[in-house]
């Protein structure tokens, strides 16, 4: 099961169907998609694999709890697949949702680039279906916000594939050198360097080379520095939560170091609303370190349908609101200092 969250106004099936792939991150196939609504506005999107046939509907996931958790009052059910399975699946899903007080406003089927309404027999919904346009006003709005759709599910997983062996070897050498250098530093100096590295690479639009990948990767292994990165992501100040940075770092690290970076990448994707990419990142973290607690917790939250906005205190630990506010002020000062240093360096150049 995959989930995304965004608040978008929709005006009919074409708005919805052109937007769903962007929200999921890929074009679904043989899938059940339930779009949760609040007051007619899109609130969340959940996807699950369909069973092999209408005779195996007991394997169809029940998404009622996820929509209820997001306080949805309506929904649209979409099945990407063949007609008999679509009819049986939508009927079962609609009955469950209706019983939970979530009104299915439409039941749709998508196949071969066309959409079919399973509830409307009016001329606006012809029985032979209607073509799905490439774009709509709603899909353009979502694309401008930074969402995009890969060709299929496997393309999402490919984003987290290990970097080429030569680059990984260069990072491994840099990690060994950094560990030797770290032995000469006291805790305070090391922490300052780690915080500086996180702030610097979150604030620039480029990606680090081997030495800096090693620095950031090792820094995230410290829970305090990792949580600092999570708080910076939660600040919402960085384009796309710098998902690209965290994925880049994770792809270059050896298996024994990858879990923290992959978990931070998953968290950044989750907070951005890309549940599919987040799930891939958490799975990568847990393959390398099956007991990495934060990855376990975030994957459970994602699969339960907990909305991204509910994660705003992740990284804050047991600190109260006053402590969090003080920390945010300090972090803003660090960011301003980093920006000043960058400007001064540019002037010198």
UniProtKB/TrEMBL annotation:
Q: Where is this region: Disordered?
A: 325-349
Highest rank taxon of the organism: Bacteria
Compositional bias of kind Basic and acidic residues: 340-349
Amino acid composition bias (Acidic residues), ranges on this chain:
325-339
* A Pfam family reported for this protein in Swiss-Prot or TrEMBL: DUF4192
Protein's name according to its UniProt entry: DUF4192 domain-containing protein
